[in-house]
Amino acid sequence: xxxxxxxxxxxxxxxxxxxxxxxxxxxxxxxxxxxxxxxxxxxxxxxxxxxxxxxxxxxxxxxxxxxxxxxxxxxxxxxxxxxxxxxxxxxxxxxxx
Length: 97
What we know:
By secondary structure, the protein is mainly alpha-helical. Helix content is 39%, strand content 0%. The chain has helices spanning 5-14, 21-42, 73-78.
């Protein structure tokens, strides 16, 4: 597979990126290099290799959840700049085109 301008434009659109012509050319080169590297990795015989699930043998030590301070729903709403009787009111941040 070879990356061309159409593929970069499609990926940029899906990622909501606006690329300049120079950035598009750079992306084509970078993405083709990545695919070339992946092709090189695919040449390796990995038939006897176990899949790697974790990078280390360390075990994640989690602490127990402990409630340290409780506030009521009404107290939480008192801290909001805008609210109605039940919810925080916030400005719309997503603009759909």
